[in-house]
């Protein structure tokens, strides 16, 4: 068995190397082909990074090289959507529309963003700063201002290697996500998060947002100047415009000790149940100190669950006073930003001349074929393989924050992107039922649902925050990342996997993560007014910034219904510059059709 696994692992690595070589010639992606995670359709075809959830091929791709060109495109097209590098699992949110009146616009092609291409070695970075450089660090204010099209990995690696007197170990974001290959604008727009009971999601951390709005102007919004619009823009799913720049807080990197506890899922469930209990008691007391104390045991915890074996790896972190790190160089293991942008020569004219400056026809996306590995191992062996691949990643020790807090490695991102078509779901449930829900999910896993899993679910915890559409608006939540690695390859629904997703959504009132999978099937069940307390406040921001629905996409989720004294009134009648009027009621929608009854088997089979 062990030797079979070893052979398997070698095969995986061999194919990985081969595929990387093979794809070198494609040059279709705004990521350096020699970066491991190079496989994505954008900016040439409109699909996700594996060629799925594609838009109608008549939809145009916008590749503006300047903000002026971006604004002109927004004015010219009736339907517009800002997109990143294709990490979306929902066509309806992702596609501006379904015909040639529609354009999906990327921000990776701005000359100023691409200028990061020309970076010399790290040591000489400092000389390059000028006003057009896409990342600007202000050490005194402890902020970074970054253009929307810069990828999170690039930003984090840039900060980590920005070694200065005030930041002798470089700089970092207070909390960041596991997956870091999306653009910063996309990550902020969708409430992307790590595991933190202190700092919230990237959307919760953001300090200032510059957005290109429907009337073709740039608007900069801060919480001080306009708390209402800011709360709407923090998680906007692209519905309010295209985020061109954000300002985020940064911290000088410290030494962070990473520890790993291996335990059973049963034991972890008991821990979360205890947190749930003490959180509920603290909530009743209303004492903020007691509440944060109750949540302390899950601070920054990332737990990898192995449903097949019933094992769980709990990774946790502690900030240290020391500045001495394990390992010799901070740069080893950190990816060189230069690599990402350098050798890309495709010039955007591959799909014919532009209709207008910056607007291009799509190249036809090629959906990734099935994974040759899925059938190589059974679920027990995948469980072991998952552990083998994770071991080097989670190794305990003292590292800089960038390295200590786990992120998906470039290599594993590449493996999954190129060879392993999957749909990534994520559900979040409130902390007052986190333990109870996890306990029941654990029972479902034991009763056969584990067979639907090939990659360990990842459990994290995030503090409550105020952005209207944040998953944690209303209070802290437990997030469970769930991946279906079977249905694309086997061309049949993954019913055991669906059982788990439906359980969380139907019985734990879970919210789905914006932009991840599940929306295409469960959107008919979505009723913003009952899922989000500030739903109509968000609607009022839409009335203000996008009154004609340029950014409405094809999603049926964007629906608002206001009533006053029991009668329906136009939403705009209930909106003021500070949000939705308390004289009105944000009412449940009446136009919902096609919501499958709770527990109904959906037979999800993505295109
Ligand atoms: C794409 O849009 C065109 C024009 O609106 C339409 O004729 C065609 O059926 C659409 N194709 C798909 C696959 O929906
Ligand atoms: C997977 O295969 C191994 C033999 O390699 C076997 O021991 C194990 O029971 C199988 N597991 C399942 C779930 O079929
Ligand atoms: C465009 O919209 C923004 C935001 O609503 C507004 O502040 C600005 O005045 C508008 N500009 C024009 C030219 O209409």
From TrEMBL:
<feature type="signal peptide">
    <location>
        <begin position="1"/>
        <end position="25"/>
    </location>
</feature>
<dbReference type="GO" id="GO:0071949">
    <property type="term" value="F:FAD binding"/>
</dbReference>
<dbReference type="InterPro" id="IPR016169">
    <property type="entry name" value="FAD-bd_PCMH_sub2"/>
</dbReference>
<dbReference type="InterPro" id="IPR007173">
    <property type="entry name" value="ALO_C"/>
</dbReference>
<dbReference type="InterPro" id="IPR036318">
    <property type="entry name" value="FAD-bd_PCMH-like_sf"/>
</dbReference>
<dbReference type="Pfam" id="PF01565">
    <property type="entry name" value="FAD_binding_4"/>
</dbReference>
<comment type="pathway">
    <text>Cofactor biosynthesis; L-ascorbate biosynthesis.</text>
</comment>
<dbReference type="GO" id="GO:0016020">
    <property type="term" value="C:membrane"/>
</dbReference>
<keyword id="KW-0732">Signal</keyword>
<protein>
    <submittedName>
        <fullName>Putative extracellular protein CSOL_038</fullName>
    </submittedName>
</protein>
<dbReference type="InterPro" id="IPR006094">
    <property type="entry name" value="Oxid_FAD_bind_N"/>
</dbReference>
<dbReference type="InterPro" id="IPR010031">
    <property type="entry name" value="FAD_lactone_oxidase-like"/>
</dbReference>
<dbReference type="InterPro" id="IPR016166">
    <property type="entry name" value="FAD-bd_PCMH"/>
</dbReference>
<keyword id="KW-0560">Oxidoreductase</keyword>
<dbReference type="Pfam" id="PF04030">
    <property type="entry name" value="ALO"/>
</dbReference>
<feature type="domain" description="FAD-binding PCMH-type">
    <location>
        <begin position="53"/>
        <end position="253"/>
    </location>
</feature>
<dbReference type="GO" id="GO:0003885">
    <property type="term" value="F:D-arabinono-1,4-lactone oxidase activity"/>
</dbReference>
<dbReference type="GO" id="GO:0019853">
    <property type="term" value="P:L-ascorbic acid biosynthetic process"/>
</dbReference>
